[in-house]
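ok, trying the design again with the full structure, not the truncated one.
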């Protein structure tokens, strides 16, 4: 049994939508239908050509340029005045549209910034939850849910590591097997809740009598395995006998 951390992937439907959005043609835009896209945003635009501010600005700029160029040929003072007034009106309208568009862009940018912050907060929160859940799953995969000790799977892994560590060395580890006698009587007479509490208390008792580097696991219903690291057989016998007496005296 193995656990892998969660990973967040971009949903396929979002990718498909993006690809479709990028390749679609705006049927309302005469320019787009003729494969003329002067702006990068044209890929995502649904406006008609007459409503495109960029084209409006370009057209207005071209008209103003022509009116300014016409001064070279105008002689009538009235036409010159009309031309000047027309240019001023167009410049005023152009400035107004630019300011309006700038305000809209600023508002959109503010909204996008808020959305980005919200998404970042959500992403951070989601990552924290995923990491927390991953840690919980890793813990449950290697620990007994009742006593909090290592489970059989993790103990076998630790035992294998210890076995490898003693190869070609003089180190000695001792494996001990502990089985609670007549544990079934407790379950039958007092109920499983009392039996579970007894297992938890016995686990704490054994941990108090072992070193921090020793490995204790619950490998069955009332069965425990204890791996004493860097311990001689004589010392292990003394430790296990001390544990046996403590359990025997436990009430």
């Amino acid at each position: 049994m193995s656990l892998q951390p969660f990973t967040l992937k971009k949903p396929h439907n979002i990718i498909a939508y993006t690809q479709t959005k990028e390749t679609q043609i705006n049927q309302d835009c005469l320019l787009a239908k003729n494969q003329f896209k002067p702006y990068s945003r044209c890929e995502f635009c649904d406006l008609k050509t007459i409503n495109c501010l960029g084209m409006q600005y370009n057209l207005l700029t071209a008209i103003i340029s022509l009116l300014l160029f016409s001064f070279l040929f105008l002689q009538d003072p009235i036409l010159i005045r009309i031309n000047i007034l027309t240019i001023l009106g167009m410049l005023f309208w152009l400035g107004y549209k630019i300011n309006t568009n700038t305000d809209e862009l600023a508002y959109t940018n503010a909204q996008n910034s808020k959305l980005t912050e919200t998404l970042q907060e959500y992403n951070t929160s989601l990552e924290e939850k995923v990491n927390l859940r991953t840690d919980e799953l890793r813990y449950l995969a290697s620990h007994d849910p009742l006593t909090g000790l290592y489970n059989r799977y993790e103990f076998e892994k630790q035992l294998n590591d210890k076995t490898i560590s003693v190869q070609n060395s003089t180190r000695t580890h001792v494996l001990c097997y502990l089985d609670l006698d007549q544990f079934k009587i407790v379950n039958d007479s007092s109920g499983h809740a009392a039996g579970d509490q007894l297992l938890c208390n016995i686990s704490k008792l054994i941990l108090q009598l072992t070193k921090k580097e020793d490995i204790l696991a619950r490998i069955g219903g009332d069965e425990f395995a204890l791996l004493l690291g860097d311990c001689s057989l004589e010392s292990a016998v003394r430790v296990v006998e001390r544990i046996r007496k403590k359990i025997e005296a436990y009430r």
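Keeping the full-length input from now on. The chain has a mean pLDDT of 81.
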